[in-house]
Amino acid sequence: MPISADKWFEGVNFEVGFWQNYLNTKGAQWPDDYRMRLDPNKPFNSMVEQAIRDTGSREIEVLDVGSGPITSLGYVSKKFDIRITATDPLADAYSILLEKADVIPPIKTQKCFGENLLQYFGGRRFHVCHSCNALDHSIDPRNILLAMAQLLYPNGLMYVRVHKNEGESTHYSGLHNWNFDRDENNHFILWRGTEKYKINEDLSDFVEGQLTEWVTEDGPELVFAAYRRVL
């Protein structure tokens, strides 16, 4: 079940403070990341680009869920015309931070809780629904994933990247409320306390996907890449 809204809001100041420091220091310990996010000519994420199936159209609509104040996806592709819609529940707070830091992002983040994606976008559809290091910060990541799956065009790509067991490793500080893991059958697992969900099975009516694990300098990460079923 979702965490309470009160529990979620307790972590907001921590998250806003992180991004305030990031913007005021031009990236804190990630200056290259800061420069790339603000570069309108930054190439679109190559891993996501390579995973996109042929849509019959050069124009690709991308939804970035939990993007923070500035999307990390990149903006330019030789294969596609990329159209990014970035969303985050804290977009209003981020707008204030950006203004104070005198920063204008290439794409403005729109305010939308992931849990409200279906209501916010209605009948709009996307070729790619993406999220990176964000869903463990949410109230109800299971329902966000279900919404992302439903917002895809047939054969559209869901690309979700998460740190493994982030809630546990951060002792549930700030907005880190959930954990993602993989089991012995390579199921994509969402869990918190005694709650446990097999995301592959929950999404099986909408998408079919594959879970991959790799180790980065920040620790183990999971990538769930799935495609919308053609009904």
Low-confidence stretches: none
Beta percentage is 25-35%
Radius of gyration, CA atoms, in whole angstroms: 17 Å
Question: What is the residue-mean pLDDT, rounded to a whole number?
Answer: 95
For the biggest β-sheet, the strand order reads 3-2-1-4-5-10-9
What form results from the Cα inertia axes? globular
Major sheet, described briefly? 7 strands, mixed
- Named CATH architecture: 3-Layer(aba) Sandwich
Helix count, per DSSP? 9
- Secondary structure: number of strands: 10
In N-to-C order, the SSE pattern is HHHHEEHEHEHEHEEEHEE
CATH homologous superfamily, by name?
Vaccinia Virus protein VP39
Task: Please describe what this structure looks like.
- The protein is α/β, with parallel strands linked by helices.
- The chain has a single domain (5-228), classed as Rossmann fold.
- Helices cover 29% and strands 30% of the residues.
- The chain has nine helices and ten strands.
- A hairpin with a 5-residue loop joins strand 6 (179-182) and strand 7.
- Helix 2 packs parallel to helix 5 (91-100).
- It is globular.
- The two termini are 29 Å apart.
- The model has no long low-confidence stretch (mean pLDDT 95).
Question: What key attributes describe this structure?
Answer:
9 helices; globular; 231 residues; alpha/beta; seven-stranded mixed β-sheet; three-stranded antiparallel β-sheet; single chain; 10 strands; Rossmann fold
